[in-house]
Design a protein that fits this description.
Elements (H helix, E strand, L loop, with lengths): L20 H8 L7 H17 L11 H9 L10 H17 L15 H13 L2 H4 L3 H9 L9 H14 L5 H18 L26 H15 L15 H20 L10 H4 L2 H14 L6 H16 L4 H14 L9 H9 L3 H15 L7 H19 L4 H4 L4 H4 E2 L7 E4 L10 E4 L2 H13 L24 H16 L7 H13 L4 H8 L4 H8 L3 H19 L1
Antiparallel strand pairs: 1-2, 2-3
């Protein structure tokens, strides 16, 4: 094996001569231009940032590109400070790097601008448009600093701005600043008549291969929709094997997988007109070309989406009664492209659950809904009511580990049933559950009170008084989109507690809490989650008891040591 320098990979891309925070602290100690108070603030900023990174100042390189992704991952709540305090801390650390000549000082005074840019910036300020005042300042001052006139700004200058931000920013996301600047520029074109007319473009990040809707053969679309209708609402009196109905969400997924696969087949060189039906799509030659195209785009390796597509194609061929030779070939493709996932939860989910074994963190999560509900609505009523919605969603997930697709579509009258005073049951019929198992939970009194209080306050700020959904969509009468609600829950928990937790992780948390208190209690966990089989529950969660087992063993060893 060839020899190489065993440098820490964590800092492999940091230039060798880069000073550490400890070097900066030493340099600031001899900087005569700083007042004692200012010197103290800058040094404190460096020390606190290092502490938040779980490192000593000597272990933190004063390198913006090293710092950016690491500081972006820090949630203020996770280190026990407010967002404002953390912003001040990072600002002090950055100013320390400015004082030591590592990064440049930000220029934000209008008088620093040349006349042309100063006049334009005055127009922006006069508009009082926050959507322009937020993303444009750094871009405008940068363009003026490098000598670009307003009418000469082009895409290359925006990319140069991105490069400058990457070299001088230690916490904010450079890509987000760049995209915000470009979008802010284009928005100013629309809203301000004085703004330069040229449009700036962002490089496309899309890797999708989906054809435009108009390019799919209409007969194929009809055939796909007929097949999915058969799967969603199978004919109970049809001859042959009776199919179990699939959930609407599964139908949507199947449709997407099929149309994406058609796009891959066309991308491989097959004319779209040749794929006028599912039978035509499932011809082995077309299937092979489509799957090869997918593999090429993934470096020659299979992945879950390729495996799922191969499996779906085989299922459809079987349902349509295609010739045995076609089924045999598609079976071969499915077998070769299968992704064999290891049993149990993913490593990422295990890591996130492990944080919740800290009693203080778990306690904060359990009390979070009530803490949010206790806050006054104040002047920003809409924002406060949305926060209360998030609190109720989290509260429900803590007691009722639902899938987010069911949570987002809860109807007040239909799913929240009240058999008696103060009682409320969350009831979801089997037809609306992924695995066709009915779900029923009794909600605790404090959660019922939270729901009632919110329902009395939410209209008309969030929705009309007659909106039937517990979590209504913005500006329309339907329910919130499940991905939107899931993202809101994730963001709320991160902002309030400082941990990464999506809506689905609440299901894992429910099982962890129950199995910790009731080792081996998989049947109750199965019923709680609505799993169709006990083996499914055991295969996913059997590893959760390892912590309890090792903890019990450690306790036994401690007792033996004390007795010897």
């Amino acid at each position: 094996m060839a020899k190489y320098n065993k440098l820490p990979l964590d800092g492999i891309f940091v230039p060798p001569a880069t000073p550490s925070f400890a070097d900066l602290i030493e340099q600031l100690g001899t900087e005569d231009s700083l007042t004692p108070a200012r010197r103290k603030d800058l040094i404190s900023g460096l020390r606190r940032v290092a502490e938040a990174l779980h490192r000593t100042p000597a272990e933190v390189p004063a390198d913006p590109q090293w710092l950016q992704p690491r500081l972006a991952r820090i949630a203020p709540a996770a280190i026990g400070v407010t967002r404002k305090t953390w912003q001040n801390t990072v600002s002090n650390a950055r100013n320390a790097m400015v004082a030591c000549g590592i990064v440049t000082k930000r220029q934000r005074r209008p008088e620093d601008l040349s006349p042309a840019w100063r006049n334009l910036w005055a127009v922006v300020q006069a508009s009082k448009d926050k959507s322009l005042l937020s993303p444009l300042p750094r871009f405008v001052f940068f363009l003026d600093r490098v000598g670009i006139a307003p009418e000469d700004v082009r895409n290359d200058h925006a990319l140069l701005f991105l490069e400058a931000v990457e070299q001088n920013e230690i916490s904010k996301n450079p890509q987000a600043a760049y995209e915000g600047a470009v979008m802010g520029w284009n928005l100013a074109r629309v809203r301000l008549s004085e703004w330069p007319r040229q449009r700036l473009d962002l490089p496309s990040k899309s890797k999708r291969v989906m054809l435009p809707a108009t390019q799919y053969p209409s007969d194929l679309i009809k055939d796909v929709d007929r097949y999915l209708e058969m799967r969603l609402r199978p004919d109970l009196l049809a001859t042959g094997k009776t199919l179990r109905p699939i959930a609407a969400s599964s139908g949507t997924t199947y449709r997407y997988l099929l149309l994406r696969f058609v796009s891959h087949v066309v991308g491989s060189g097959v004319a779209a007109e040749e794929i006028s039906s599912l039978n035509a799509l499932l011809q082995p030659g077309h299937v092979e070309r489509g799957l090869r195209h997918m593999l090429e785009r993934n470096g020659g390796a299979t992945r879950a989406s390729i495996s799922d597509t191969a499996g779906l194609l085989l299922t459809i061929a079987t349902h349509l009664g295609l010739p045995e030779e076609i089924v045999r070939i598609l079976t071969q493709y499915k077998t070769r492209l299968a992704v064999h996932e290891p049993g149990g939860m993913t490593a990422k989910n295990r890591d996130r659950l492990r944080v919740l074994r800290n009693p203080d963190v778990l306690r904060r999560l359990l009390h979070l809904p009530e803490q949010i509900m206790a806050r006054p609505l104040g002047q920003r009523r809409h924002k406060a009511l949305r926060a209360r919605e998030d609190a109720i969603a989290i509260g429900i997930l803590l007691y009722c580990p639902l899938r987010v697709s069911n949570l987002s579509t809860l109807e007040i009258e239909r799913h929240l049933q009240r058999p008696g005073k103060g009682k409320m049951f969350l009831v979801i019929p089997a037809s609306e559950v992924k695995n066709h198992r009915p779900l029923e939970f009794e909600l605790p009194a404090h959660l019922v009170s939270m729901i009632d209080a919110h329902l009395s306050d939410r209209a008309p700020t969030l929705c009309t008084p007659r909106n039937p959904y517990l979590f209504p969509a913005t500006r329309k009468d339907g329910p919130v989109w499940r991905n939107t609600l899931s993202e809101r829950i994730k963001r709320r928990v991160r902002d309030e507690i400082g941990i990464e937790m999506n809506a689905h992780l609440f299901r894992h948390l429910a099982v962890m809490i129950y199995l910790d208190a009731n080792p081996g209690g998989y049947e109750v966990a199965r019923q709680m989650l609505g799993h169709s089989s006990l083996s499914q529950t055991i295969s996913v969660y059997s590893g959760l008891e390892t912590i309890s087992a090792t903890r019990s063993f450690a306790s036994l060893v401690d007792k033996m040591r004390e007795g010897m």
